[in-house]
Specification:
About 40% of the residues are buried. Helices cover about 30% and strands about 20% of the residues. The longest helix has 24 residues.
């Protein structure tokens, strides 16, 4: 299994992530991690911080001469703005220059303040901030590199932003289309929808508002057999749902055509099973999203992730209560984006890759990359040869 733990605050000195469970022999470079972090900064409607956020990456442990050692990998992402925040966010004893007492509706501010006994929203928001996802993307880069040796590629594209949506009949992108997606101002593969999305962002920005949207994550080449039907916490779709729901501001996750097939009859809701000598078992449709009974079925894996409009606005209009005076007021203004949906798609790729890599390691095992690939190859070669329990094994 693959495990990771992040630490650090949005305006703290650095973010740190430790990834445990990677096999030895996986090639990793700082440049690959920086490349994925740069993708996280993409998207029309991002705030000014994205223009100077450099994401200075340091590999602290677990990698020697460009390859993993099988030990935990530690990565640091320095905050280039730290000199501006060193006094406000110092870990040394002292007091902040300003206390934030007007919690924002829709953010972790008030629940966190009440849960932990804080009177300053910054004690909560600094960790609840989506800046934490930079550490996840660093970890996800390692997962993507691992999956690439198993023939798996995870991409995303934006299919909805505000009230603008890609056409339902628009073709899905393939792995080779990722560069084209990232060139889009909103990471949308449908050019006609891209224009409407940009217009929606401009309209919201004009009045200081924010927008949510939907990213579709596609995983190509996922081998059959990841996840399990035997326990609730081993089901692949459940693991994906938890991982994707953990992304800041995400409020809904759909596997395959979940919402749509809930309205259909059973005769029109499932993916037919076909067989040919070249491809083996194939599915003409992708309604299940590549998962049946909690197990990957070898089909295209599809997940859609819905992000709410950001709770931080560029005009303080959300009604709230000052936690000290208990008087009605408006939430404080914090530098923010109009939308972070395009970036959320990249983070959703990350979380999907981390789940798939973890389940691949659980399924195939191996202390080295070569052993993992060998075990995967052996499993794929054995498919269809396992005797059925309904048919006695010949002695």
């Amino acid at each position: 299994m693959l495990r990771f733990l992040t630490a650090g605050e949005s305006h703290g000195k650095a973010l740190v992530v430790i990834v445990e469970g990677l096999p030895a022999g996986l090639a990793v470079t700082v440049e690959e991690i920086q490349g994925e972090l740069a993708r996280r900064r993409l998207g029309f409607g991002r705030g000014p911080r994205m223009r100077f956020e450099a994401d200075e990456v340091s590999l602290l442990g677990g990698i020697r001469h460009g390859r993993t050692l099988g030990s935990p990998v530690a990565i640091e992402i320095a905050n280039t703005e730290w000199p501006k925040w060193e006094t406000e966010m110092s870990p040394a004893p002292g007091l902040p220059s300003k206390v934030l007492t007007q919690p924002r509706p829709g953010h972790a501010d008030l629940p966190g303040m009440l849960k932990y006994g804080f009177d300053d929203a910054r004690d909560v928001l600094e960790r609840a901030s989506a800046r934490e996802t930079a550490a996840r993307v660093a970890a996800g880069t390692l997962a993507k590199l691992l999956l690439s040796h198993l023939g798996v590629t995870v991409i995303s594209h934006i299919i909805g932003l505000g009230d603008a949506s890609a056409k339902p009949e628009a073709p899905r992108p393939l792995p080779e289309d990722l560069a084209r997606i990232d060139e889009s101002q909103v990471r949308c593969f449908d050019p006609s929808a891209e224009e409407a999305m940009v217009a929606a962002i401009k309209a919201a920005a004009k009045v200081g508002d924010s927008l949510g949207g939907v990213a579709e994550v596609l995983a190509y080449g996922v081998p059959l057999g990841l996840g399990s039907h035997v326990h609730w916490d081993r089901k692949l779709d459940a693991l994906l749902a938890q991982a994707l729901m953990s992304i800041q501001a995400v409020k809904a996750v759909e596997i395959g055509e979940g919402w749509d097939i809930a309205t259909r009859r059973g005769s029109d809701a499932h993916d037919a099973i076909q067989y040919n000598d070249t491809d083996g078992y194939v599915r003409p449709t992708h309604r299940a999203g590549g998962i049946e009974g909690g197990i990957s079925n070898g089909d295209l894996l599809v997940a859609r992730v819905a992000m709410k409009p950001l709770a931080s606005l560029n005009r303080p209009t959300l009604e709230t209560v000052d936690v000290l005076t208990k008087e009605s007021t408006v939430s404080f203004k914090e530098r923010t984006d109009v939308t972070a949906v395009p970036a959320m798609g990249v983070v959703a790729e990350t979380m999907t890759a981390l789940v798939l890599a973890s389940e691949a390691l659980r399924k195939f095992g191996g202390d080295s990359l070569a052993e993992l690939v060998r075990n995967r190859d052996g499993f794929i070669a054995s498919l269809g040869t396992t005797p059925s329990a309904a048919k006695p094994v010949e002695q």
